Amino acid sequence: MTGTTGRVALVTGAGSGIGAATARLLAERGMRVVVNYLSNTEAAAEVVSGIEAAGGRAMAVQADVREAAAVGDMVERVREAWGGVDVLVHNALIPYAVKPFQDMTWEELGGKLDAELRAAFAVTKAVLPAMTGQGWGRIVYIGTGLSRRPREGMIALGTAKAALEQFARYLAQELGPLGITVNTVSPGPVESRIAADVLDETTRRRQVAATPLGRLAHPADVARAVAFYADEDNAFMTGTTAAVNGGLAMY
User: Fold this and answer.
1) What whole-number distance in Å separates Cα of residue 12 and Cα of residue 159?
2) pLDDT at position 3
3) pLDDT digits (tens, 9 = 90+) for 63-104
4) Is residue 44 a contact partner of residue 74, using CB atoms and an 8 Å limit?
5) CA dihedral sign, ordered 40, 44, 46, 47
6) 195 near 146, Cβ under 8 Å?
7) What is the CB-side half-sphere exposure of residue 179 using CA atoms within 13 A?
8) 250, 184, 227: which is closest to 24 by C-alpha?
9) Domains of the chain, residue spans
């Protein structure tokens, strides 16, 4: 049992990967978890049923986090069922182009920037009234090591997540006096279906060889860092970025 037992955590993009691992861990630690998803109803239902089978509490809610109205409806549904959101973990991955800058259109780069910040803006705006009303809240954004350590073809994702990281710092400064912490978890390459689509085997081996801890991250590694930031024990860290990359980049 922790101080966050019974708190309500909203995890966006929680049907698979880091989001699903985070939802399971927060539920294991006593939180009531909202499993947000975009389209894969079956995957979200599996996460919820797994949490419930382990004795936790969870509900799945569909919403496109890029749409403010849909986000508002989702948060209202949660409020009616469980009350306000205490912990926001914004993990939903907005699609992006993987290509060199010289082959990229402004729609691909600017569109990713717009969608990334639009989603973060919408979900944060929606949960803040409850957090400010009670004088307590935890906001955690999922970034990427590519914000600081560029890799070929990843300019759209790296640039958008760098903007998200700075957005988090500004919020941390503004919301700290209200009892709300805002932090970013910045994974390196993660073993997942998405990573398999982006990393060819040669690149994957190179990344592992450059990582002092000798492997890529697992979703559970990232979830543990998120869970720390989401907990009552995190009383004096805000505006920070946790690099979960096995030492691949140190900052």
Assistant:
1) 21
2) 63
3) 999 999 999 999 999 999 999 999 999 999 999 999 999 999
4) no
5) positive
6) no
7) 13
8) 227
9) 8-244
- Fold of the domain spanning 8-244: Rossmann fold (3.40.50)
Task: Categorize the per-residue pLDDT at 201 as very low, low, confident or very high, splitting at 50, 70 and 90.
Answer: confident
List of residues 6+ apart from 37 with CB closer than 8 A:
13, 14, 15, 43, 44, 60, 61, 62
Taking alpha carbons only, the member of 148, 170, 168, 171 closest to residue 158 is 148
Q: How many residues does the chain have?
A: 251
If 0-12 CB within 10 Å is exposed, 13-18 middle and 19+ buried, where does residue 45 land? middle
Give the integer Cα–Cα distance in Å for 112 and 179. 31
Report whether pLDDT(239) > 90.
yes
- Torsion angle defined by CA atoms of residues 6, 74, 239 and 232, in that order, rounded to the nearest 10 degrees: 0
